[in-house]
Amino acid sequence: xxxxxxxxxxxxxxxxxxxxxxxxxxxxxxxxxxxxxxxxxxxxxxxxxxxxxxxxxxxxxxxxxxxxxxxxxxxxxxxxxxxxxxxxxxxxxxxxxxxxxxxxxxxxxxxxxxxxxxxxxxxxxxxxxxxxxxxxxxxxxxxxxxxxxxxxxxxxxxxxxxxxxxxxxxxxxxxxxxxxxxxxxxxxxxxxxxxxxxxxxxxxxxxxxxxxxxxxxxxxxxxxxxxxxxxxxxxxxxxxxxxxxxxx
Amino acid sequence: xxxxxxxxxxxxxxxxxxxxxxxxxxxxxxxxxxxxxxxxxxxxxxxxxxxxxxxxxxxxxxxxxxxxxxxxxxxxxxxxxxxxxxxxxxxxxxxxxxxxxxxxxxxxxxxxxxxxxxxxxxxxxxxxxxxxxxxxxxxxxxxxxxxxxxxxxxxxxxxxxxxxxxxxxxxxxxxxxxxxxxxxxxxxxxxxxxxxxxxxxxxxxxxxxxxxxxxxxxxxxxxxxxxxxx
Lengths: 248, 230
Ligand SMILES: Nc1ncnc2c1ncn2[C@@H]1O[C@H](COP(=O)(O)OP(=O)(O)O)[C@@H](O)[C@H]1O
Ligand SMILES: [Mg+2]
Hints:
The structure holds two protein chains of two kinds.
Chain A: E1 3-12, E2 15-25, E3 30-34, H1 41-48, E4 56-61, E5 64-67, H2 74-81, E6 84-87, H3 99-110, H4 115-128, H5 144-156, E7 162-166, H6 174-189, E8 193-197, H7 201-207, E9 210-215, E10 218-223, H8 225-230, H9 235-247
Parallel strand pairs in A: 3-8, 3-9, 6-7, 7-8
Antiparallel strand pairs in A: 1-2, 1-4, 4-5, 9-10
Helix pairs in contact in A: 3-4, 3-5, 5-6
Chain B: H1 13-54, H2 58-73, H3 76-86, H4 96-121, H5 125-133, H6 138-168, H7 180-191, H8 194-224
The complex binds adenosine-5'-diphosphate and magnesium ion.
Adenosine-5'-diphosphate is lined by residues 12, 17, 35, 37-43 of chain A.
Transmembrane segments (chain B): 28-54, 66-87, 195-215
Pfam families (chain B): BPD_transp_1 (PF00528)
InterPro entries (chain B): AA_ABC_transptr_permease_3TM, ArtM/GltK/GlnP/TcyL/YhdX-like, MetI-like, MetI-like_sf
């Protein structure tokens, strides 16, 4: 198991958002999370990257273990955080840095990779996501789909064991979605381990090894895409899927 | 009671001509350096106070809050007097110029702290998270991601602080710094032509501030080009 999360609990003030979630994933596999708005998908994904600190549960990524019941030091947080990298819904690119500078920031500043080497690697990744020609542009000069692909390149450049995606296409105009999904398909085909929150069901059907349906802070149902999409066991899953399908 | 009479205005052109250079010189060798040096120290102090205010340590937050409150709640003239005329009672004596630098820096430190704090807070939370997900620590995110963006936001208000500071240096005349305004005062002691000399002083301040606001506009234009439009 590359990723193993057990009994994750997270509250914001009085409201309990995650109520004991278990998640596991083998290396090279793709997990898709679906569920209604407000069900806790983002919170769970952020917990895997320790952008949220759950108050209970354990997390293990790539053999590095964290017990949320205990106080974690900054060093412990960082050590498990760098096992994964997040692609945000709103991309969160650094507006004052060029595309290339965005992508080399992590390798050069955090991983202390030599700048020339980081630039070579970044250019190759930018080529893979179709943005080689945009490396010296600033984020605001790009379309939303291009920005999101830079966001993906920035995460990939860290060479993390696990890539996390939080609805990477939901803020995009429909005609820009396909390019981003293609990049993600390529990553899956190249063996990256990924956890993806998305409501692109066709894409999920294609790339997911496992799908989980999150509802009100728990995993209500999980299975392979065929099981979950074609033969959902729970009424709530069925209703959610039909709502999503109607929307398209 | 004397009737109000608008007398003939006769300008003493030779005096105007001969006094202009000493007044301008006071501006160039005292007013401007005093403003620049105080601004640099003041910004460093303001940055420190802003970071203390943003820290999660209660004592640090409280200390910064008290400092800012005192600076903003007391007149600069009184702060200058305490430092130059008051501190010698404790055995701390400084030259007029150094005293003025200390008082003005502390003043800028109090006022600019809130500006800097607000500009740091104006950078979206997502920028912190993007830095963290790359594996950066707090200091790295602050220095490389947040402060460069905050700096852009704070250029207009900090430029205004600097222009105010240039004018506030005139208060250093009260602790015998022979800056622009004191030069004018000194000449009135022998010529008694108050209207002419103080108008000249005003003119020189206005020229300085006019040039500075042009520089400010130029900087803002340049920065605007690269600022994100979300
Ligand atoms: N920082 C926060 N403070 C308070 N409530 C939050 C915070 N983040 C998320 N929530 C709440 O947690 C719930 C789950 O949010 P989220 O994980 O974003 O759901 P999803 O991604 O499935 O839409 C929502 O009700 C949201 O309002
Ligand atoms: Mg969400």
